[in-house]
Each structure stands twice: as C-alpha cells, then as structure tokens.
C-alpha cells in the first residue's frame, strides 16, 4: 500500500516563497536630445508603447546632443541589466566602445532612425526610407520650379544635415539624384558655388547654424526681393528650414515672394509655416509607425522569434550590413497638411 505524504500549508507557502521570480525583459532607450520636440516626443511615445506591451523601460536623453554623455548613458544602461538597447545616435560613428561593452554583456542593439556605424554591435536598424525622403524633396523642387521645361534658369541653394549623421548621406543622395541633371544642364544654378556636403553641411542639425549660413549666402550672392532672385532652397529637415526661413524673412521675404523651401519631420512649427505660405513642404515620418516597428522587434526578440525585416542589403555600417526594417515616408504640403497634425 502506497503512502501519500501531505504537505502542510506552511511548507507549501515556503516553497512558493523560494520559487525563482521571472524578471521582465528590460529595454534601455537612448535618445539624442530632449531639446528638440521631435526627439523628446518620440522618446516618451516609444517608452509608453513598450511599457504598455509589458516591458520594463529606462529612458535617457543625451542632453543638448552630447555624444560623450550618450556613450556614458549606454554604459550605465548596460550596467542596469537591460536586455536590449534602442539608440537614436548623436554621433553614429563614435559608439564603438560603449556598444562593444554592451555586446560583451549580451545586450542586443537596435539602431533607431539614425544608423550606428563602425561597429558590429548593431543587431537591427529601424528607420524610414531616407533615400526616398531625399528623392521626394528633390523632385518637389524640380516640379515646383518647372526645371524640366523652364526657359529661364532657376537659382537654388543647397543645405546638408550633420556630417556625423549617416542619414544625411541618404537624404543628399536622393535629392541630388533628382537635381543633378538640371544643375549639370544649367537649368538650376547654384550661385554661391557651394555644392559639396563639406561646404553645405549644418553641424548638429542646428537651426542657428542654418540661419547663420543662409544669412551669409544672402550677403555673398546678393539675394533679396528686387535683387538677385532666389527660387528654391533644398533643406533636408525642418530644423534647418526654420533657420533658413528666419534669415529670409529678416531680409525682406514673405509669403508673397518666398523661394520654394523643403523640409522634413513635420514638426508643428513647419506645419504652421506651410499653412502660412512660407515653407513649401515637409516629409511626415509617422512616429507611431516607427515606434510600433520597434515594439514588434523587441517583442519578437524577447520571445526568441525571428525579427521582421525588409532590407538586407542597403545599410552597410562599415563593419557589417545591418538587417533593417524601412517604414514609408509621406510628402506634406498645403494640400494635405492636416494629415500630419498630431
């Protein structure tokens, strides 16, 4: 006859007490700055979406785009025991040491919007099709200035983003693919003679630097109402177009004579400017779409499941080709500006 040993309530309680706990999958977010609405808002949005999906989240901002601070934050997040880092890089080429440390601790890395370069520590990249963004901006200038058919050459000036941001290369390539044929044919004229990224870049994507350079161009070339005509300005982002527009308005331009000025990010100030007839267009990169992509990636990683990607060849970061998921951007001008209002 078998004897069945009954456990006392106290014994059961003790067993339950010593049972190992299941720790939440922990995500570290390192965003470049809290001083730009776009980055502050997306940091909070992504944090909330990840928390709602059941993840433990730590969110850091890199001060006033302080690359050294961001690297220290990545080390701190690694030491806090995160399972995955989501990094919106300030200087994507200056993170080898901090991310190498993260990799040595088994931490996966998702590069957020800006590609992190020169390190194999990047696991995935989530962004928008940034070359397409450039094509949209360049083609908008081509179409609005009638470069394909005009008998009168149009004067344009070019702005590039930060040389430290890999995305700037893709914006530039797409835009110049559209504009270069007309520059070469003389249909589009760059009177400043400044045509290379090194000549036209905007350090740290600074509105102040963009304003300063546009003011210098106005003075150098003699642009202005009743003076040398300026027909268009290629600006890769709204933070740059904002500075450009400030300089133009300070020198007599208004909605009645403003050159065609492009942008990107659909920040509220840019949308207001479009409605007021100043900035001509922007590109809306829906933050919900990008953040949802990150949540999906993290969810699959936490379950040991394959991560959905749609580009395995384009994004070579100098150490590896990074598996990427591309979201689709949307052109916004006065005809559809309401779509981008958040």
Keywords:
41% helix, alpha/beta, disordered N terminus, 342 residues, four-stranded parallel sheet, single chain
Briefly summarize what is shown.
It is built from eleven helices and twelve strands.
* Element order: H for helix, E for strand: HEHEHEHEEHEHEHHEHEHEHEE
Instruction: Work out the radius of gyration.
Output: 24 Å
Give the DSSP E fraction (strand runs of 2 or more residues): 5-15%
What is the makeup of the main sheet? 6 strands, parallel
Helix-strand category:
alpha/beta
Helix content: 40-55%
How many H/I helices? 11
Query: In one word, what is the shape?
Result: elongated
Q: Give average pLDDT, whole number.
A: 93
Distance between the termini: 74 Å
Number of strands: 12
Give your account of this protein's structure:
With 342 residues, this protein is α/β, with parallel strands linked by helices. It is 41% helix and 15% strand. It has helices at 9-18, 37-52, 67-79, 96-104, 130-144, 166-185, 197-200, 207-222, 238-250, 268-275, 287-302, and strands at residues 26-31, 56-61, 84-87, 108-112, 124-128, 154-158, 188-189, 232-234, 260-261, 281-284, 324-327, 330-333. Strands 2-1-3-4-5-11 form a six-stranded parallel beta sheet, with helices on both faces. The protein has a four-stranded parallel beta sheet with strand order 7-6-8-9. Helix 3 runs parallel beside helix 4 (96-104). The longest helix has 20 residues, at 166-185.
């Amino acid at each position: 006859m078998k004897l069945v040993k009954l456990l006392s309530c106290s014994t059961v309680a003790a067993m339950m007490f010593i049972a190992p706990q299941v720790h939440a999958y922990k995500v570290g977010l390192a965003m470049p700055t809290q001083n730009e609405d776009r980055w502050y808002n997306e940091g909070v949005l992504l944090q909330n979406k990840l928390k709602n999906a059941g993840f433990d989240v730590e969110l850091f901002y890199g001060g006033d785009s302080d690359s050294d601070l961001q690297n220290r934050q990545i080390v701190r997040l690694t030491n806090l025991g995160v399972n995955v880092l989501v990094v919106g890089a300030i200087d994507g080429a200056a993170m080898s040491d901090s991310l190498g440390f993260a990799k040595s601790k088994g931490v996966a890395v998702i590069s957020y919007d800006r590609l992190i370069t020169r390190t194999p520590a990047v696991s995935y990249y989530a962004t928008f099709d940034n070359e397409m963004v450039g094509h949209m901006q360049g083609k908008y200038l081509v179409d609005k200035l009638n470069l394909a058919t005009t008998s009168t050459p149009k004067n344009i000036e070019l702005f590039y983003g930060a040389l430290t941001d890999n995305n700037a290369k893709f914006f530039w390539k797409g835009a110049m693919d559209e504009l270069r044929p007309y520059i070469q044919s003389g249909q589009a004229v760059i009177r400043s003679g400044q045509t290379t990224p090194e000549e036209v870049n905007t350090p740290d994507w600074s509105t102040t630097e963009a304003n300063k350079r546009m003011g210098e161009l106005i003075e150098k070339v003699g642009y202005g109402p009743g003076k040398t005509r300026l027909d268009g300005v290629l600006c890769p982002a709204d933070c740059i177009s904002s500075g450009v527009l400030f300089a133009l308005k300070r020198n007599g331009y208004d909605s009645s004579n403003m050159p065609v000025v492009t942008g990107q990010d659909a920040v509220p100030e840019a949308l207001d400017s479009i409605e007021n007839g100043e900035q001509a267009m922007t590109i809306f990169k829906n933050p919900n779409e990008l953040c949802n992509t990150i949540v999906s990636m993290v969810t699959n990683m936490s379950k040991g499941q394959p991560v959905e990607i749609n580009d395995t060849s384009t994004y070579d970061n100098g150490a590896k080709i990074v598996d990427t998921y591309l979201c689709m951007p949307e052109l916004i001008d006065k005809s559809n500006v309401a779509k981008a209002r958040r």
